[in-house]
TrEMBL record:
Keywords: Isomerase, Lyase, Multifunctional enzyme. Residues 196-286 form the 3-hydroxyacyl-CoA dehydrogenase C-terminal domain. It holds the Pfam family 3HCDH. It comes from Pararhodobacter oceanensis. SUPFAM superfamilies: 6-phosphogluconate dehydrogenase C-terminal domain-like, NAD(P)-binding Rossmann-fold domains. InterPro entries: 3HC_DH_C, 6-PGluconate_DH-like_C_sf, NAD(P)-bd_dom_sf. This is 3-hydroxyacyl-CoA dehydrogenase C-terminal domain-containing protein. GO terms for molecular function: isomerase activity; lyase activity; oxidoreductase activity, acting on the CH-OH group of donors, NAD or NADP as acceptor. GO terms for biological process: fatty acid metabolic process.
Length: 400
């Protein structure tokens, strides 16, 4: 059974100024201003999709359900068997052919693939095929064709929600419009972005959750506090859904870029086979591929790593968990705003990518209502304190 903490009902706007009395109507009107008016399109008769990620499998299932003949192309027979098992368990294999042969793309009018595989599959597509690549937000060494459209979403079909859409300046407008129409036809809400926002916000929340576990909390304490606060899913459970191997790859990329981390949990978990739900174990265990259950061994792993690092453990209550997670999201949102993204777009993406309560409009909207000066005092009031970024300090100064 999944243990739960008592909801953090003691919180009030005085305790935590980023949660003033919500105004759902104002929040939803503010977030709705970013919606695109692109009409939905008729779905293609066939499609070729590469990779066995949850996103690729979700799009394959969604397109097959609409009647498209889908070819799912995997790197090797092991990955092909794993994809077949996952789709079979989900009852979504009908209409999908799984292969390791990219030539079976067979003049497909639609290609969806991660950046490394896109070029090898696109050469077998129809001349006017729509090329869409799934992105995880990390920089890619792959060279993408200019007519390719990049997308990111935290929720694959059939729960497709907000989808970030990013196109090369040389990308034909027709390709961009076709992509947006396709996403709408699959139930998504395409949002054009100047650069990907969701991966940055997710990464900031994931890293804060990992730090809290390293400091002494458990994954289920972090998740219970955040769902009690109104998040759709706790950050550790959500990370398990996406796959801890994605976080591991991001951390390795950050190490190579000269941004070493001082929290070693993911660095140990993934090499030991804790890949998340698709591997059967991550922050939680998923016996038989079913729902998550608490895994006491993760507590032992975290305590052991803290001991090795001579890192002191402490009691962390739900109020502190909530404060640190929300402040981390607000700080990253301020950085994205400073780099040129629109506030309403950032908040919309944050709500859908991290589960921030939609009725509160996102971290920037909520902080503006609460007052930035009051929110900044929360950074210093924590023990140990959090240091706001220069972007957030500048935003607070501009807000008065």
């Amino acid at each position: 059974m999944h243990a739960r903490l008592a909801p953090a009902t003691s919180l009030s706007p005085a305790d935590w100024p980023l949660c003033p009395m919500p105004d759902p109507d104002a929040a939803r009107a503010y977030l709705g201003a970013t919606q695109s008016g692109c009409p939905p399109a008729s779905l293609p008769a066939s499609a070729a999709i590469a990779g066995g990620s949850p996103l690729a499998l979700g799009f394959a299932a969604g397109l097959a359900l609409s009647g498209a003949a889908v070819v799912l192309i995997e790197d090797d027979t092991h990955d092909a068997r794993r994809a077949q098992d996952m789709l079979t368990r989900a009852g979504a294999l009908k209409g999908i052919t799984i292969t390791t042969d990219p030539t079976l793309a067979n003049d497909a009018p639609l290609i969806l693939a991660p950046p490394p595989q896109l070029a090898s599959i696109a050469r077998h597509a129809a001349p006017d095929a729509l090329l869409i690549t799934f992105c995880d937000g990390m920089a890619t060494a792959a060279t993408l064709p200019p007519d390719c459209v990049q997308i990111f979403t935290a929720t694959p079909p059939p729960q497709l929600g907000v989808v970030e859409v990013l196109a090369d300046p040389l990308c034909p407008s027709e390709a961009l419009h076709r992509t947006q129409a396709l996403l709408r036809a699959l139930g998504g809400q395409p949002v054009p972005v100047p650069f990907f926002l969701g991966p940055r916000l997710i990464a900031r929340l994931e890293d804060m959750a990992e730090a809290l576990v390293f400091d002494g909390a458990t994954p289920w304490e972090v998740d219970t506090a955040m769902t009690a606060r109104g998040f759709a899913l706790g950050p550790c459970a959500a990370q398990d859904q996406r796959g801890l191997d994605l976080t591991y790859a991001r951390h390795r990329a950050e190490d190579r870029a000269g941004e070493p981390r001082n929290v070693p949990l993911i660095a140990r978990m993934v090499p030991e086979g804790r890949l998340g739900r698709h591997g059967g174990v991550g922050w939680y265990r998923y016996p038989g591929g079913g729902g998550r259950v608490i895994d006491p061994l993760i507590e032992d792993l975290a305590r052991e790593e803290a001991h090795f690092a001579r890192h002191p453990l402490r009691e962390i209550g739900p109020e502190e968990i909530i404060q640190r997670c929300l402040l981390a999201l607000l700080d990253e949102a301020a950085l994205l705003l400073h780099e040129g993204a629109a506030a309403a777009t950032i908040d919309l993406i944050c709500c859908h990518a991290t589960g921030f309560p939609v009725d509160e409009g996102g971290p920037l909207f909520a902080a503006k209502r609460a007052g930035f000066a009051q929110v900044l005092r929360q950074f210093a009031a924590l023990t140990p304190p959090m240091q706001p970024s220069g972007a957030l300090l500048e935003l607070a100064t501009q807000a008065g």
